[in-house]
Design brief:
By secondary structure, the chain is an alpha/beta fold. It has two domains: 204 residues, ABC transporter type 1, transmembrane domain (ABC transporter transmembrane region fold, Up-down Bundle); 244 residues, Rossmann fold. The chain is built from 18 helices and 14 strands. A six-stranded mixed β-sheet has the order 8-11-12-5-13-14, sandwiched between helices. The protein is elongated and about 110 Å long. The C terminus is likely disordered. The structure holds adenosine-5'-triphosphate. The site of adenosine-5'-triphosphate has 13 residues, from helix 9. This is ATP-binding cassette domain-containing protein.
Length: 594
């Protein structure tokens, strides 16, 4: 497994994710420092200017100097930093992270199972944004520390007591800002979650209008949505409250500070120990100090957030930041056009599974100690009751779930990275619930491959009659934004997609559950032609009888293994399953296959 280690500390991880934008980052940090030095010098120029006001000459020169420093600052800040360097650091980092996450998800599909379900999208979205924002914001913060240190030293040298009093006030205000900021963030998260619940309820309600009306549940469902909406409104008000507190404190910190300053220095000015120039310098530094202390107050909150975000990113990436692939990401076998061209070989090919064990995180459910042997050209069918672990087994064999124990071997050699190992067979996988994209049928089947295999895939998936009946044939737009296909059509489009990659090993999860008998028979007639190796989950007697080997799973373990007749003779679980099958349809399938 290549790639740079992400480390454990938040700083180590930040350094790792910044690789590639390091020069831009340091240039940005250096320029922010320079800018703050400029701000410090403007304060000193103001002091000089007001001290010189009564004196002859020099005033215009100071005004010219201030104008020059400010012009240079504006050019640097807007022309170079905000327009060029900040986007480079921020979007360079987010792009690199997203490429790494996407590359990991595609080349090592078990990655998504390392995070809590549903969290992967949040990692790719919010966590990456948080990290990108932090690395672009950190240089401003660093420069603020420099400004604060130097400004306090300069002010202390003028008057220790006044400076200490002003700083106490500012630290108090910074503390209030930090607390308000952290509450604001918490309530913003709550508002977002509440908005998600409202949107989800509305989506479900629109999707189930018929069911709601049939149950005459309109009033209750509307009341439920109204309750969710009220909760969202409460969360939004709290979020806005803390946003306003934050804005008010930051906006008024400088005027309050200047008020205190005037109170403190009134006597001193009369005594002549505090000059007009000193007042100008203090007032100017106070303005910048309030901004700086506000930003410094946010550092701990932002550090906490970015550390959590980086923790999730590191978890997804398995602790390593892989460089984005310089070649197209290897597609899961049977799905892309860039599969390595594995030579057909006359030597026997076999896929074997030894002691494969996987449990879903935090549960005892999964598969335990599974041994399997599949010679090339043979058909293996896994069967078992609902929840017995059939899908889990397929996914673990495919490497979509990282095994706890055991291994998968191809011709006796372990396949460590099933997605890209050149020694692994070219796999095609059709899941139990296939997903189609918004696009044409052709695009859904080819997924970017050239269309050399299209006709054959469509024929074998028994899709030809369906395409002939569609207005635009293979160019009919389907998926969420197109024609709605039936369950059986979706299954066959997914099978055609799998076949278009010319896989050597076909892995199918209950793919014929929505097919009528004759379509199913045509499908298996085409697929079980003796050349492809098939590993399928099914309850259908026709397929079970056609299989070279039937694997009966019970609570994640292999309960029986053998031909259909053999397992029927020895397996109590198989007998139960058979008895549960609808007798007329079971009998019909058996007859048809005979
Ligand atoms: N992501 C998950 N997290 C926790 N438990 C899971 C998860 N997926 C499946 N399970 C549990 O693992 C067990 C095996 O599930 P699996 O989907 O492999 O069964 P199956 O035999 O394929 O079921 P079906 O016939 O319904 O497809 C079940 O008890 C299921 O509830």
């Amino acid at each position: 497994m290549g790639g740079e280690k992400l480390g454990r500390s938040v700083f180590g991880r930040l350094v790792a994710v910044l690789r590639g934008s390091t020069r831009a980052y340091w240039a940005l940090t250096g320029l922010w420092m320079l800018l703050r030095v400029g701000t410090l010098s403007v304060g000193l120029l103001f002091q000089w200017f007001f001290d010189e006001l009564g004196a002859e000459g020099g005033v215009w020169a100071i005004i010219a100097l201030v104008a020059a420093v400010e012009a240079a600052r504006l050019f640097l800040q807007f022309g170079v930093m905000i327009n060029r360097l900040e986007p480079r650091v921020q979007y360079g980092t987010t792009t690199r992270l997203r490429s790494a996450l996407l590359g990991t998800a595609l080349s090592e599909p078990g990655a998504t199972s390392r995070t809590v379900p549903g969290e992967s999208l949040r990692t790719v979205g919010e966590d990456v944004e948080e990290t990108g924002f932090f690395v672009a914001w950190a240089p401003t913060n660093l420069a603020h520390w420099l400004f604060v240190a130097v400004a306090i030293t300069v002010m202390m040298r003028i008057d220790v007591t006044v400076t200490a009093a002003l700083l106490s006030l500012l630290f108090l205000l910074a503390l209030v800002t930090a607390v308000a900021h952290s509450r604001f963030l918490r309530h913003r998260r709550e508002t977002r979650a509440a908005s998600g619940r409202v949107a989800g309820a509305l989506r479900e309600m629109f999707g189930a209008v018929g069911a709601v009306r049939a149950a005459t549940a309109e009033t209750r469902v509307s009341a439920h949505v109204a309750r969710l909406n009220a909760a969202r409104a409460r969360a939004a008000v709290r979020e806005e409250l803390y946003a306003v507190v934050q804005r008010t404190v930051i906006g008024n910190a400088a005027p309050i500070g200047i008020g205190l300053l005037l109170l403190l220095i009134a006597g001193r000015m009369g005594e002549g120990t505090f000059g007009v120039g000193d007042l100008a310098l203090f007032a100017f530094y106070l303005l910048v100090l309030t901004e700086a202390l506000g930003s410094m107050g946010m550092l701990s909150v932002r550090l906490q957030r970015v550390s959590v975000a980086l923790g999730r990113i590191a978890g997804f990436l398995g602790g390593r930041l892989r460089p984005p692939p310089s070649h197209p990401v290897p597609a899961p076998r049977g799905r892309g056009g860039s599969e390595p061209d594995r030579k057909a070989t006359a030597s026997p090919r076999r896929l074997s599974v030894h002691g494969l064990t996987y449990h879903h995180p935090g549960t005892h459910r999964g598969v335990e100690d599974v041994d399997l042997l599949m010679e090339s050209g043979t058909v293996t069918v896994i069967t078992g009751r609902v929840g017995s672990g059939k899908t889990t087994l397929l996914r673990a064999v495919l490497g979509l779930l990282p095994p706890e124990r055991g291994e998968v071997l191809w011709n006796g050699r372990p396949i460590s990275d099933p997605a890209s190992s050149p020694t692994a067979p070219r796999l095609g996988y059709t899941p139990q619930v296939p997903r189609l994209f918004s696009g044409t049928l052709r695009e859904n089947i080819l997924l970017g491959r050239d269309d050399a295999t299209f006709d054959e895939a469509v024929r074998l998936a028994v899709l030809e009659p369906d395409l002939a009946a569609m207005p635009d044939g293979p160019d009919t737009v389907v998926g969420p934004r197109g024609l709605r296909l039936s369950g059986g059509q979706i299954q066959r489009v997914a099978i055609a997609r799998m076949l278009a990659g010319r896989p050597e090993l076909l892995v199918m999860d209950d793919v014929s559950s929505a097919l009528d008998t004759s379509t199913e028979r045509s499908l298996w007639d085409g697929l079980l032609n003796g050349t492809a190796t098939v590993l399928a989950v099914s309850h259908r007697p026709a397929l079970l009888r056609a299989a070279d080997r039937v694997v009966v799973l019970d609570a994640g373990r292999v309960e029986a293994l053998g031909t259909y007749e053999e397992v029927m003779a020895v397996s109590a679980e198989m007998a139960r399953l058979h008895a549960a099958t609808d007798p007329p349809s079971g009998a019909r399938m058996v007859e048809e296959s005979g």
